[in-house]
Design a protein that fits this description.
274 residues; alpha/beta; seven-stranded mixed β-sheet; 11 strands; binds S-adenosylmethionine
């Protein structure tokens, strides 16, 4: 049963953050675009079966290329952040292969909530780094149930998140994460993390403080806060079951290692229960 009230969660991760959403999105990308280790995995995974692919919580479209190169017949990305969708559109315009796919009607992006995926049936529904944003079992079930209803007969839902070995074991005090260059301006990111074990998994309060030097030498300070939830394996399995989904495969890394307590990732491939 999906209880009422799950709409309380905003689909826009930058909503209510005091900083400029476009700058926050650019800084978010600076970090996410540096992730490449899953690119080959997604290219190979999609190669297993050609078909329409829905990228839930696509961000700025980091994975569009491997999905298309893997042979997805079309890719539709949705994300709750208007700033990240604008960046996805810029990425498509700047990349010849993506621009050609978009012109041929094989690639499109739209603002949307992962709990209300677009109509139609999909061979692949990808949710990479999205589940922890669901804020708990109620919203997660909403997302999983909606995805299950949109899977085609041979469709697969892929959930890909941090695994048990990548979870913070203790609170992390405010510390320097990185210092990088963003279009010629220096950006410094600090963060602090507090964690709480709950019966349904790990809840993490992640506070970032980003300082970006403006062209005139003054500093824009962008505080942001993200509440994340990492369901335990047993809670995830029962949510999938309640959503009418069965687990086909589980991996603990993008190198297809088995999932165990040390795994950095938890990749779950699920299908509709027959
Ligand atoms: C960690 S990022 C992952 C982005 C992308 N999948 C990737 O792997 O590069 C999580 C994404 O989920 C989006 N998101 C979180 N909750 C959402 C919701 N309820 N509806 C739509 N998008 C959501 C965020 O805006 C963000 O772009």
């Amino acid at each position: 049963m999906i209880a009422a009230g799950s709409d309380a969660l905003s689909a826009d991760i930058f909503a209510g953050q005091p900083g400029d959403a476009d700058l926050l999105a650019a800084i978010y990308d600076l970090e996410h675009d540096a992730v490449h280790e899953d690119i080959g995995f997604y290219r190979r995974l999609v190669r297993r079966a050609r078909g329409r692919l829905l990228d839930l919580g696509c961000g700025s479209g980091r994975l569009f290329r491997p999905f298309l190169e893997g042979g997805a017949t079309s890719v539709r990305g949705i994300d709750g952040s208007a700033a990240l969708i604008r960046r996805a559109e810029l990425r498509i315009a700047a990349d010849q292969a993506l621009a050609e796919a978009a012109a041929a009607g094989r690639l499109s992006v739209a603002l949307g909530d992962v709990r209300r995926p677009p109509k139609g049936k999909w061979r692949w529904i990808m949710a990479v780094g999205v589940l922890p944003h669901m804020d708990g079992p109620e919203a997660a079930l909403h997302m999983l149930g909606a995805a299950a209803a949109r899977l085609g007969p041979d469709g697969r839902l892929v959930l890909d998140d941090i695994g048990p070995g990548g979870m913070p074991g203790r609170d992390l005090p405010l510390s320097l994460d990185w210092e990088r260059d963003l279009d010629g301006r220096s950006v410094v990111r600090r963060s602090q993390m507090t964690r709480r074990e709950t019966p349904d998994g790990l809840r993490v309060d992640y506070v970032t403080m980003t300082d970006a030097v403006r062209p005139d030498g003054t500093i824009a300070r962008l505080p942001a806060r993200f509440r994340l939830w990492y369901p335990s394996q047993s809670v995830l399995e029962s949510l999938l079951d309640e959503a009418g989904l069965a687990i086909e495969l589980t991996y603990g890394s993008h190198d297809l290692e088995p999932l165990d307590a040390e795994s950095d990732r938890r990749v779950v491939i699920a299908m509709r229960r027959r």
